[in-house]
Amino acid sequence: MPEEHNKDAMKTPATSEKPKGDERPAVSMTTVNIPLVNEVQLTAATGGTELSCYRCTVPFGVVVLIAGIVVTAVAYSFNSHGSTISYFGLVLLSAGLVLLASSAVCWKVRLERKKERRRESQTALVINQRSIFT
């Protein structure tokens, strides 16, 4: 009879209090609402620098252009046409030119917008002036 007592002791209970390995706890989801920012708020937050891309690209364009000129001159002074350093110099040279050209385009666009705003404000002033005197 002691053998039967040992067999019962080795059995696991039918209802286990341990969670099973394949069960996972419920995942709680949180929703985050991202507020939309309009142009006025962006201008207030950045101090108006988002409209001055030409001011930022000019110094970078000049530095990259000078680096491109130097690297290209060094590469071609050693007569290493078609080498990696000559290609790198030409890439820097062209990147500097692209940066300077894009800053010039941004500057022109900004000037045109300023002129258009001035015309609109002058038109509004003239219309308001006429409506006051009539």
Automatic annotation (TrEMBL):
Tell me which Pfam families the record gives. Answer: TMEM100
The UniProt record lists the keyword Transmembrane: yes
**Does the keyword Oxidoreductase belong to this entry?**
no
- Spell out the InterPro entries in the cross-references: TMEM100
Q: Which UniProt keywords apply?
A: Membrane, Transmembrane, Transmembrane helix
Q: Which domain of life is it from?
A: Eukaryota
Q: Which residue ranges run through the membrane?
A: 58-78, 84-109
Q: Where in the cell is it found?
A: Membrane
Tell me, in one coarse class, where this protein mainly resides: membrane
Stated membrane topology is: Multi-pass membrane protein
Q: Where is the composition biased (Basic and acidic residues)?
A: 1-10
Residue ranges, annotated region (Disordered): 1-25
Its recorded name reads Transmembrane protein 100
Originating species: Characodon lateralis
Q: What is the lineage of its organism?
A: Eukaryota, Metazoa, Chordata, Craniata, Vertebrata
